[in-house]
Amino acid sequence: MELLREKIADSIRGVVEKMGYIVNPLLLKIKGENSQLLVFYFHALYESPAHKMMEHIDPQKNMTVQQFDDFVDYFLSHGYSFIKPTDLLTGLPSDKRYVIVTFDDGYFNNMLALQVLEKYKVPASFFITGNNIRDNKSFWWDVIYKYRTSEGVSKIVIRNEQENTKHFKYDYINSYIEKTFGKDAFKPWSDIDRPMTEEEVKILAKSPYALIGNHTLNHAILPNYSGDEIRKEFAGANEYLKKLTGMEPNVVAFPNGDYNESALEVAEELGFRVAFNATASVNRLPSGSEKLILLNRFMSNDNNIRYYGSFYRLGYTPGTLRSSLKSKFT
After folding, report:
1. Which of 7, 85, 124, 220 lies 20 to 30 Å from 94, alpha-carbon distance?
2. Domain shared by 16 and 124, yes or no
3. Same-domain check for residues 266 and 289
4. Those residues with Cβ within 8 angstroms of residue 189's Cβ, 6 or more apart along the chain or in another chain
5. What is the pLDDT of residues 211-249, one digit of tens each?
6. Quick check: 9 pLDDT over 70?
């Protein structure tokens, strides 16, 4: 029975992949793409495939620099304009199509994106986790991943441990990491897993193609926190980033994409104008008059952009479509 299920799953996978080449272009002609806004979030960038094989960070479908170059080139070739979130505040023409690129967390390797942004003259937003920068600490999910991988633990078990850890506040997480892996567990292993330095954040902020945004002080997964705690996370990160860059962010990306009413209320209260979740869906163009614009984001994909790009332009991912078909036929 299990073998049959796998065969069906493989068949569905093949159908979905063929749709990416054959059916999707036809659907796009019927649907049209003007007035839609696609937002993508990235985490790390690899200088080369060899760096990915080192497994110093949780893969999270991270791209190489060349794949990111291909990503930008793909959307430009399909008539998309790359914009900053703040461009939405004045309203944009509805007869065009738009992409926003965001990088979460503040990995040093995000600096590699600049060469692509400068090449194509397109912007991206970088959401910085304050205390990881200040303390030069690896991100906790990467600590779990790299230590457990080095111990030979399976990827499924590692993922379960990471997911379970997300339900706690940062002080518990920090304690858990140090008790489990040692006092030096947060020390980066290489340039691959380290955050930016304060000087690198300053350099990034000076680029005309980079916008610095708030990602809380401690990568706080907001539903775990009270309203007052959320306020401290947002306000503390903004104060820190203003000290570094001279500019106070008015855009925020919710860590892990998770938020609640308290998070929205505090974000609006503190003057944020654009907020990002991690709901995989297309956005319609906001008017710009909203007090707080909340935008959906697709997670970047390390497969060939010419395969999966048409799925996102239609408003779904290959994975969600595959899961939907699988549930109906298995």
Report:
1. 124
2. no
3. yes
4. 56, 138, 146
5. 999 999 999 999 999 999 999 999 999 999 999 999 999
6. no
**Domain range for 326:** 1-32+315-330
> Does pLDDT of 78 surpass 50?
yes
Percent of the chain with pLDDT over 70: 90
Q: What single-letter amino acid sits at 167?
A: H
Cβ neighbours of residue 53 closer than 8 Å, sequence gap 6 or more: none
Express each pLDDT in 161-186 by its tens digit. 999 999 999 999 999 999 999 999 99
For the ranges 114-123, 144-153, 188-197, 317-326, the lowest mean pLDDT is seen at 317-326
Q: How far apart are CA 270 and CA 157, in angstroms?
A: 39
Side chain identity at residue 133, one-letter code = I
Asked if 253 and 322 sit in the same domain, the reply is: no
**In contact, 132 and 219? CB cutoff 8 Å:** yes
Given the DSSP bridges, would you call strands 63-64 and 45-46 parallel, antiparallel or unpaired? parallel
12 and 102 in a single domain? The answer is no
Same domain, 28 and 60: no
Spatial separation of the C-alpha atoms in residues 287 and 90, rounded to whole Å: 8
Q: pLDDT over 90 for what percent of the chain?
A: 73
- What are the start-end ranges of the H helices in the chain? 2-21, 23-31, 49-53, 65-77, 113-120, 130-135, 140-150, 155-165, 170-181, 198-206, 227-245, 261-269, 305-314, 318-329
Same domain, 4 and 125: no
Q: φ, ψ for residue 197 (rounded to 5)? A: -85, 170
**Count of the separate structural domains present in the chain:** 2
d(CA 292, CA 34): 23
- Number of continuous H segments (helices) and E segments (strands) in the chain: 14, 12
Mean pLDDT of the chain: 91
Q: Which helix (H) or strand (E) holds 78?
A: none
